[in-house]
Design a protein that fits this description.
Layout: H1 2-21, H2 29-59, E1 68-74, E2 77-84, H3 91-102, E3 104-112, E4 117-125, H4 134-155
Antiparallel strand pairs: 1-2, 2-4, 3-4
Helix pairs in contact: 3-4
Amino acid sequence: MVSREHKRAALYEKLQLLRSVTNSHALNKTSIIVDASKYIEELKQKVDRLNQDIATSQNSNEPHPLPVVTVQTVEKGFLINVFSEKSCPGLLVSILEAFEELGLNVLDARISCTDNFCLEAIGGENEGQGSIDAQVVKQAVLQAIKNWSESSEQEQ
């Protein structure tokens, strides 16, 4: 009897963990699992899009392809991903300046600048600023990358 209750409690705990990881608001088991399945599909689509973007940038005729940029709207603001297979000295500063010009606060960020450049940031709008959308954020980041690229080419 005790082991059945223990198993039930463990299952409940795992379902609640799955619910929180997938940002599900469902209350019953079936709905939580359906939401998790949808979440996994969304992640697969994101991976496919990123792989396509990377393949496109690698196939371009440019000697130094520009970083790949994706921007998505999330609950707190925007999820901004920037990836380049090469190190990009000074690029982070350019992107952060673009965030500042847009009035975005960096709420959370993960950055790697050693062998490649990888930025994953959550940017939230400042209070009192006009509303902006993901496309505006993406264009601002792309412009910052373009400006950085032009200035780094001039330095060489």
